[in-house]
Amino acid sequence: MNYIELLFTTIFQDDYQQDLLINELAEAGCDTFEEVDFGFKAYLPATSFNREKLDERLEPFHSLLTFSYEVNLIPQKNWNAVWESNFQPIQIKDQIWVRANFHEPRPDFPFEIVIDPKMAFGTGHHQTTSMMMDFMLDTVFTGKKVLDMGCGTGILAILAAKKGASEIVAIDYDPVCCESAIENAALNQINGIKILCGSKEVIPNEQYDIILANINRNILLDQIEIYQRSLKPGGLLFLSGFYENPDLEILKNEAEKYQLRYLIHKKSQNWVSAKFIR
What we know:
The chain has 278 residues and is α/β, with parallel strands linked by helices. The chain has helices at residues 15-27, 51-58, 76-86, 127-137, 155-162, 175-187, 217-230, 244-257, and strands spanning 3-11, 32-36, 39-45, 66-74, 90-92, 96-99, 111-114, 145-149, 167-172, 193-197, 208-214, 231-243, 261-268, 271-277. The protein has eight helices and 14 strands. The strands form three sheets. Strands 10-9-8-11-12-14-13 form a seven-stranded mixed β-sheet. Helix 7 (217-230) packs parallel to helix 8 (244-257). The radius of gyration is 18 Å and the shape is globular.
C-alpha cells in the first residue's frame, strides 16, 4: 500500500493548537504522526487522500493558526528503509525492551519484544503505545483471554502473550498490519495469537477478560458498545489513541452508557490512555 506524507510547517502559540490540527487530521484518515523540528508529518493511505476535501476540512483552522503543508507520495517499497533509518530501541521502565531484529538483544529485561519496523503502526515509540504497555505491566494476564483491536505490529498482543495470556485475538483493518503482526509474532516465537483482518465485524462472538484498543477517538466511540458486549463482567478495557481534551471526557461519557466504569488514565504530551472496568 502506498502512503501519503503530509509535511506540515506550523507556527503555534502553544502545543494545544497543534493538537487540535492533528486531531482534525486523525478524523480525516491520518493514522500515524511524527514530530519534526518545524512542525510534524502526518501519514494516510494514498487511496484515502483527496486534497480538495482535506483543504475544505482545514479551512477553518487558517483563521486560528498559521500553517502550510506539502504532499509527498511514499511508495510501499520505501517504507522499510524509512522505518529502519529512524527506529531506535526503547524501554518501558526497567521491564520492557523493544528492539528491531537488527539490534542487539537485552536478555536482562524481563520482557524483550522484537519488532520488524515496517509501515504498520505500533513500534512502542508513540506515546499511546508506550502508555498501553505501561498499563499492561501492572495488569495480570496469566490465564486471561485477550482481544487486541487495531493491533498494528502486534506489539500489545505479543506483550500479552509474554505475560501469560491463554488466548489472544488481534484485529486490524489493514492487511499490511495483519501481515506485520503475523511476522512479529513469529520473530518473538509466539504461536498463540489469532490474527484477523477487518474491523468490529470480525470480532468473534466470545467474551474476553481484557480488551486493548489503541486506535483513535472516533473509532473507539463507534466500537465501544461491542467492546462492552465482548467483555466479561469485571473485565478490563484499555483505550488509547486520543487526547485529554476534549476526547477523554467524551469517551468517559460514552462508556458510562454501556456500564463501563472509568478507573484511571495516563497522560503523555496530551495523549491519553484510559482504563475502564465492566
